[in-house]
């Protein structure tokens, strides 16, 4: 088994990957808050950690991948109130949209997709443990975490504790012992149409506590990889780590991995609040799941990635190049064993997909130099790990294209070259063309 190395956000360095249990890996990645349709930027962590699981499976690990869905949140209450509808119904609808949109990426589903609303019991138990250990206190129906009771607070984000802003604004300011403290439980307010019972009264969880509880319930403590967007390092992941450490005396995660943000062309974060986003469903309508997944693979997961129509079109063009090369491959030996090994070494070195893609393109270049290249299974292996295995599927041409191809073949046999050329152009206009394949002429999508 090759040595695998990942960058750990907490340690600020690339280090060898050493799972908690030999042969098994637990991954938890923070998912969306479902107050509206997800945008294309929300898809990046879904893609990164879905593909990371594939790589680790390829390397022989038994992987459990958990990606939560936040369906209790102030943003959901606000959006439901503005739409004049119930918050639970809005959350269910947007959850269904999220699942349908991400399903179109062709990567399958995480092993578990827990909803915060399904884990309120575990959340209450975790808060109670924090109160019992004097790391949290009740005030006016709310419960707050005492940040200064945990000396290591700030270690993940490397921030000075006195310079931190929890992003809660003035909410609860009159009830907090310290402005730095953050909410674990919030008393039900007027206009909030969902609430649960707790020892501190009717209310609902704060944002951060849900992930601590769900991650522990599904993966246990000291899970192997906790992931999400780089924008979640503080306060969300800092607070997750603090809650678990304070309540259990053990770390929530052994390693922290964060993907860079998808950015607009001007270099600013892509976000609903900025108004510079496109819906994931709209982008998939334009280019399809395979091209979008390939586009995400062109950037190293830790770096920001600039979103542009040109970048998507380049990815679509690369996808066609890979599909064309795959059609020529048969069984047999690898056309480029060195490039094949370079591909896997790139992924083992902090999951470097741009370098892996470069090795893949070199592999294809070597295959194109051979009259009858082998290596189809080898290419399938590489494409599966990158979520691009659909490029090996043969598209079935519609009857109209088949009829045009048969007419063109008849014209060629009759040596009516002008008619054959006309029918060739008609085929291309319909999105298809005839190429010579391993079994003779075949209809393929026009590139």
Detailed description of the structure:
The chain is α/β, with parallel strands linked by helices and about 450 residues long. The chain folds into 3 domains: about 15-260, HUPs (Rossmann fold); about 310-390, Four Helix Bundle (Hemerythrin (Met), subunit A); about 400-445. Helix content is about 40%, strand content about 15%. The chain is built from 13 helices and 14 strands. It has helices at about 45-60, 75-85, 85-105, 120-130, 205-220, 235-250, 280-295, 310-330, 335-350, 355-370, 375-385, 400-415, 415-430, and strands at about 5-10, 15, 25-30, 60-65, 135-140, 140-145, 180-185, 205, 225-230, 255-260, 260-265, 305, 430-435, 440-445. The protein has a 4-stranded parallel beta sheet, sandwiched between helices. The protein has a 4-stranded antiparallel beta sheet with strand order 5-6-7-8. It has a two-stranded antiparallel sheet with strand order 1-2. The longest helix is centred in the last third of the chain and has 20 residues, at about 310-330. The mean pLDDT is about 90.
């Amino acid at each position: 088994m090759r040595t695998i190395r990942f960058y750990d956000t907490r340690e600020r360095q690339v280090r060898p990957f050493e799972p908690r249990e030999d042969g098994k890996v637990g991954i938890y990645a923070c998912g969306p808050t479902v107050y509206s349709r997800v945008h294309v930027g929300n898809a990046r962590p879904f893609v990164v950690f879905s593909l990371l699981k594939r790589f680790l499976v390829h390397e022989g690990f038994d992987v459990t991948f958990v990606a939560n869905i936040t369906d209790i949140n102030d943003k959901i209450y606000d959006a439901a109130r503005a739409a004049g509808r119930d918050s639970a119904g809005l959350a269910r609808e947007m959850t269904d949209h999220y699942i349908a949109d991400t399903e179109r990426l062709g990567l399958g589903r995480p092993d578990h997709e827990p909803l915060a609303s399904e884990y309120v019991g575990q959340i209450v138990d975790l808060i109670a443990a924090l109160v019992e250990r004097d790391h949290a206190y009740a005030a006016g129906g709310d419960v707050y975490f005492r940040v200064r009771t945990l000396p290591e607070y700030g270690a993940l984000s490397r921030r000075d504790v006195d310079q931190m802003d929890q992003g809660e604004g003035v909410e609860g300011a009159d009830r907090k012992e310290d402005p730095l403290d953050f909410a674990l439980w919030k008393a039900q307010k007027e206009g909030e149409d969902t609430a649960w019972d707790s020892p501190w009264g009717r209310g609902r969880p704060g944002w951060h506590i849900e992930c601590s509880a769900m991650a522990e319930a599904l993966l246990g403590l000291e899970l192997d990889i906790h992931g999400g967007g780089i924008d979640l390092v503080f306060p969300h992941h800092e607070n997750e780590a603090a809650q678990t450490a304070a309540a259990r005396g053990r770390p929530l995660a052994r390693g922290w991995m964060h993907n860079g943000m998808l950015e607009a062309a001007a270099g600013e974060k892509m976000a609903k609040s900025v108004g510079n986003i496109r819906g994931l469903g709209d982008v998939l309508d334009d280019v399809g799941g395979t091209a979008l997944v390939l586009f995400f693979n062109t950037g190293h997961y830790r770096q920001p990635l600039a979103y542009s129509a040109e970048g998507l079109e380049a990815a679509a063009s690369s996808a066609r190049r890979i599909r064309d090369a795959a059609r020529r491959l048969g069984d047999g030996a690898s056309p480029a064993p060195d490039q094949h090994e370079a591909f896997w070494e790139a992924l083992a070195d902090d999951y470097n997909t741009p370098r892996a893609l470069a090795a893949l393109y070199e592999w294809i270049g070597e295959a194109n130099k051979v009259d009858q290249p082998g290596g189809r299974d080898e290419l399938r292996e590489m494409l599966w790990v990158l979520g691009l295995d659909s490029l090996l599927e043969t598209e079935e041409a519609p009857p109209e294209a088949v009829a045009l191809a048969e007419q063109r073949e008849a014209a060629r046999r009759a040596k009516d070259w002008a008619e054959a050329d006309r029918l060739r152009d008609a085929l291309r206009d319909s999105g298809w063309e005839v190429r010579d394949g391993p079994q003779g002429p075949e209809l393929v999508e026009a590139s």
